[in-house]
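Dear support,

Our group has been running a series of protein-ligand predictions, and this particular one with beta-D-glucopyranose is the one our PI (initials K.S.) wants archived with full inputs and outputs. We had some confusion internally about which version of the output was final, so please treat the block below as the authoritative record. The input we submitted was:
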Amino acid sequence: MGAGAVVADNNKAYPGKLTWSVFKACIVASMGGLIFGYDIGISGGVTSMDSFLVRFFPSVYRQKNLDKSTNEYCQYDSQILTSFTSSLYLAALLSSLVASTMTRKFGRRNSMLIGGILFFAGALLNGFAYAIWMLILGRMLLGFGVGFCNQSVPLYLSEMAPYKYRGSLNVMFQMSITIGILIANVLNYFFAELGGLGWRLSLGGAMVPALIITVGSFFLPDTPNSMIDRGDNEGARASLEKIRGIKEVDEEFRDLVAASVASKQVEHPWKNLLQRKYRPQLTMSIMIPFFQQLTGINVIMFYAPVLFNSIGFKSNASLMSAVITGLVNVVATMVSIYGVDRWGRRALFLEGGIQMLICQIIVAIFIGVKFGTNGNPGMLPIWYAIVVVVFICIYVSGFAWSWGPLGWLVPSEIFPLEIRSAAQSVTVAVNMLFTFVVAQIFVTMLCHLKFGLFIFFAVFVVAMTVFVNFLLPETKGIPIEEMARVWRTHWFWSRFVDHEHDVKPSYVVDTII
Ligand code: BGC
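Confirmed final output from the archive:
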């Protein structure tokens, strides 16, 4: 075993260290998370800027500023305004499905490159928009870019990372998402002062991370896995030696070829996913992203300024509150990086769920008591506003160390190889679908459910916490290849799964190498 050897729990040893070239590649690749986060954070602030509303959505502006008869809860209720925010996620849903084939046929790197170019085009169109169609088309291009990047970046990170660092490098994706959201919130705060130029800079600013990932991925090496899958075994071996920084990569190379052989044996990955024995994984690939979005987190991420504005904060204070929640989100994600392999996934899920539930109930009571069901124009007393912001921050931190990172991590570690790519696409698509649904119906729900909006999401938080408690086995410290045993020993899922061990196609690998 060479220096820096990495020993997996199943006694497999992959020699290799975290080389500079892997580190660099992962930093560039995780920019994919940054552009996703930037999008999440930017639209709420922009849609609360008066100059933006006057130009593109004058009726919303009138409703908000001039028509005092409008219920506070309903001042932003405009389907066209919401479609500006949510069109991105519908586009991302569609492109994540296309991207799974692109990523397999042309490599992870090329998908990231396409993602970066689409993203750049979208940001350009938005920054120079003079009509609504340019805004929506721009948002859709951004969405296509996000779909490509979210499909390829997590795969790229997992495949490039040495075994031992795979977990942390995966969470770097979520970390970049939260940093992207924060940067967007800070920029909105400063650009809001600039009048008409402000929203252009906020939307056009997305060109910067887009350029980084476009130019960066142009120079990135592709992953050895992807090269093998596309028939370039020699190139893949050379690349593996380079990124691991050593010559003795035999065992890992063999496993990569085995993985490629196994996945090629499956002709219809989508159909395969429907087999009874994959029922637990299929259930998780749908329920985890569904529940992640039904925590209601994106009500805060997209609409914090709108929400704070609706409950009586001044425009500037609303944007500042968004910056605070963004900062809490970044810092609390670090707790997860620290704790996920120590305390386990279930403990974080359960604790985070209870924490979010308590906060949602408190916020609902506070807003309900002050506004009742009619909405009540006027400012909140300062102490009241502070209490609301504090509980929203505690709620955000609960999400940031539970459903945020785990919503991406857990699905990615429970799928056996033969269904991994298809199941991952299901996870991304379900995530985008419900991001879209929440974005699209939020302002209407705020208008009709009023403070009950928080209770609506609280009900789902109860459901997901019960779901995790009874149906999600602990996956901490179990190598991916051994994961089948968590279902085999589970009180409920054991009835669905094969109790035979899978036969590895090593004889086929020997003939290929
Ligand atoms: C979710 C996003 C959310 C973000 C907040 C991500 O894991 O997928 O929808 O906005 O976390 O940090």
